[in-house]
Amino acid sequence: MDAQQLKRYIRLIYTKAFRYLGAVLVLCALIGGIYGNRLHFVFASCAAGSGFLCWGWFTHLKRTGFKLVGFGEKTAEQAKTPYIWRIDKQKRLHKPSFMMTNADFDDDLVNATACNENEFSKENIIASRMYARAACGVMLIVISFIVNI
Amino acid sequence: MKTALNGHTTPLILSAKNVEVKFNLRGKTLTAVRGASLDLYKGETLAIVGESGCGKSVFTKSFIGMLDKNGYISGGSITYDGEDMAKYTTEQEWLKVRGKKIAMVFQDPMTSLNPVRTIGEQITEVITWHFGTEHEQAKREAIELLKRVGIADAEYRYKQYPNEFSGGMRQRVVIATAIACRPEILICDEPTTALDVTVQAQIIRLIKELQKELDMTVVYITHDLGVVASVADWVGVMYAGQIIEYGTVHEIFKQPAHPYTKALLMSLPQLGVKGNDLYSIKGAPPNLFKKIEGDAFAPRNPEAMEIDFEQEPPRFDITPTHWAKTWLLHPYAEIYRKELDSAEHKRKISATKPEKPFGYKNAEKLLQVKNLSVNFKLGGKEFKAVDSVSFDIYKGETLSLVGESGSGKTTIGRAIMRIYNSNVSGSITYKDENIVEKMSKNETKKLHMEMQMIFQDPMASLNERAKVDYIISEGLYNYHLFDSEADRMHKVEEIMQEVGLPKEFSSRFPHEFSGGQRQRIGIARSLVMNPEFVVADEPISALDVSIRAQVINLLNKLKRERGLTYLFIAHDLSVVRFISDRIAVINKGRIVELAECEELFANPLHPYTKALLSAVPYPDPDVERSKKLLTYDRAMHNYTKDKPLWTEIKEGHFVLANQAEISIYRTEMEK
């Protein structure tokens, strides 16, 4: 990976990590708001941070070949049915808008901020997910320490 | 080999009995297949024929569980490998059969191929899915398959995307994907309908070879009876969701029993006599939302009996291998059947007088094309779509331009219509006036009124937001060709009547019409300007057999009545033979041969013309099976020193050839 590509790769991790962080913080704020105190916000962010660290760890394990049977795996038919033999060829998996790729939308910032996954190998993309999840986990735990109860 | 009583020599592998398929559409139920039955035997080829919308595709799609989401098998049984597939409810059950045991090749290859994955990956995916082969091994097998289906430079092509392939090549890729799992049954759903005759012949030959090699059963779904005659062992004729006649290919073509089968065969231009109207089936197939009483074909059959409207006919066996569902075969109808046969015989005799050939000696030249070249820029490079083409069109004749897709036929038509401006060179003289040069507004207006165009795709050429009344009047509005609103309406109604559309249809939108009716609207739009010369750009290629016959008859009638001159662009030589006075064969932007219609069919000289003629399917199994398919390779000409010239080899018969070839052609002509 050359310097430019490394820069784009870091940007990819950064984008993913802050996307996770944004979504989780909203959730934590909602929990805090429902219970009406900061303690629950801190608990929620700490728990989410631990969860994200675990998720990052499992991503690492999966990357190295470890499989947690039946967890997060697609069924054989879902994974393997060739395109030609699918009935509904236009079917798309539902993706919430905040998870969509910003490169697919045309705005002034796209050129400066777009992270194109296609230019990296599958191995690198999985690694970027691992780093992003771990980074998000660390940031959430740090936030839980910083916030005064 | 021992023949069973029903004429089949191989074991039964699939049996569909009284299959009923329904669709839920906006709260209504449409019965697309109404109790159709069919047996498939190992290694045999069955063709299912019928008009669009008769349920051919739906019936066979029910064998692999590929019905649309709103469709379901509501009755009957489909027995394959000891299991009744009609009872399958889950996708997992269908995936045991689909692709692995029964595969399908669809009409439009683009719908079968994933546009964002390379074709190699798509074939590899199928191999890995079925056999569990390692990726590298599957890749090697995929390359072998690509080579097997005739794709040159397979290693390179493996990495290309579907959009980088031509239509014929894409269809080969789909065939490779379909046979990757070595299926027992291959269903080909109109695999060649969208292709040229030469490519069609190649694809048919490929499927035949693969069938022999893999010992597959092939089911062809088509409305092209020429293709059926060439490939099928058995034929099932389908109408309104039922198989109405079944028999060997010879029985269906030589002794058709059902009035619908007879009508289908009679409406083929190959069997028509030039100058006489082609037989055309009136009306449209029945509405399958409603329950059908009696024989579904009765409302379109002018010779239907009373019972045809009241009671559904049962299956009558004609021979052990041939049956049909028509009351005509009931013993009580024997006298009436004989009367019909004799009337049909008389009609055939009376309709055998061919039209007098066009008199070229006293004919006046309407349009002269000299050294016409059309260049386009593609990716910064200049590309010659038409290369020094010359021909004349005489007043009142029909000159057809025939060739493969991309040969430049439409470009010539469009250049004549002055659609291209800067990239046209050479001269086009219409009524002694060069129309390639700049023209004044008045001259252009006059020319546009005299020259009109009919387009291939009737739906795409009509404004879907406008009513028929406006569509037909558009030219009248543009050139202010009416005195008052009443005069405009009168002109519209008159032309609608002339093309066979009721005047009440003027307030309808294009989507409310059938394909044939839409093409009539396109024709009316051209004719309302009262033109002298019409460029018809493949006006019947997208139409069904019966509708095709109606449009051919209409074009011929208008030519007789209005003295029109046509430049008819087509790739179907059977239609061209029926409609044209002269034919020009075009290859890679150059006209290679031009002659009067019968002369060209009797004495084709250029190897490309010979290849094109050999690829035309003829609806006679004996002719088709004895036919030798010729191929054309440009490398067979040696034009490095001896350049080709446009030479009149016999009066009115021109060919593009060099001196060496001319002497060969002359010897051929003398023989």
Detailed description of the structure:
The complex is a heterodimer of chains A (about 150) and B (about 675). Chain A is built from 5 helices and no strands. Chain A has one domain. Chain A is mainly alpha-helical and about 150 residues long. Chain A has helices at about 5-35, 40-65, 75-80, 110-115, 120-145. Chain B has about 675 residues and is of the alpha/beta class. Chain B is about 35% helix and about 25% strand. Chain B has an 8-stranded mixed beta sheet. An 8-stranded mixed beta sheet of chain B has the order 18-19-20-15-21-22-24-23, sandwiched between helices. In chain B, strands 2-1-4-5 form a 4-stranded antiparallel beta sheet. In chain B, helix 7 (about 165-180) runs parallel beside helix 8 and helix 18 packs parallel to helix 19. Chain B is globular. The interface of A and B includes residues 84 and 88 of A.
SSE topology sketch:
The complex is a heterodimer of chains A (149) and B (671).
Chain A lengths: L2 H33 L2 H26 L12 H5 L29 H4 L8 H25 L3
Helix pairs in contact in A: 1-2, 1-5, 2-5
Chain B lengths: L11 E14 L2 E14 L3 E5 L6 H6 L9 E10 L2 E2 L6 H5 L6 E4 L3 H4 L6 H13 L3 H14 L5 H4 L9 H13 L5 E5 L7 H18 L2 E6 L2 H7 L2 E6 L2 E7 H6 L4 H8 L39 H5 L5 E4 L2 E3 L9 H17 L14 E14 L2 E14 L3 E5 L6 H8 L7 E7 L2 E2 L6 H10 E4 L13 H12 L5 H14 L16 H13 L5 E5 L7 H18 L2 E6 L2 H7 L2 E6 L2 E7 H6 L4 H8 L6 H6 L18 E6 L2 E5 L1 H12 L1
Parallel strand pairs in B: 3-8, 3-9, 6-7, 7-8, 15-20, 15-21, 18-19, 19-20
Antiparallel strand pairs in B: 1-2, 1-4, 4-5, 9-10, 10-12, 11-12, 13-14, 13-16, 16-17, 21-22, 22-24, 23-24
Helix pairs in contact in B: 4-5, 5-7, 7-8, 16-18, 17-18, 18-19
